[in-house]
Specification:
- With 81 residues, the chain is of the alpha+beta class.
- It has a single domain, classed as RelE-like (YaeB-like fold, 2-Layer Sandwich).
- It has three helices and three strands, in the order H-H-H-E-E-E.
- A hairpin with a 2-residue loop joins strand 2 and strand 3.
């Protein structure tokens, strides 16, 4: 895919729909994501759901799933903790 195709509004809309659907699945299955390998994140109770090249960090509090951050997988996690 060329740069213009990868950055197209249609691609963005498709990815946003995918992101919304997979994050929405956490309502029925909050343990869908895994515990992160990063010790500090795991120690704070975060879970991570991988969607393509993005990481969705969230916590489970009772019956509530709180999304804290969505970042590209290439980010250095120490910068966001």
């Amino acid at each position: 895919m060329t740069g213009s195709q990868a950055d197209s509004p249609a691609r963005a809309a498709t990815f946003t729909e995918k992101l919304d659907k997979q994050i929405g699945a956490l309502a029925a299955n909050p343990h869908l994501g895994r515990m992160p390998k990063h010790e500090k994140l795991a120690g704070h109770g975060y879970r991570v759901l991988v969607i393509e090249s993005y990481l969705v960090f969230y916590v489970i509090r009772g019956y509530t799933v709180k999304i804290h951050r969505v970042v590209h997988g290439s980010r250095h996690l120490d910068d966001i903790v």
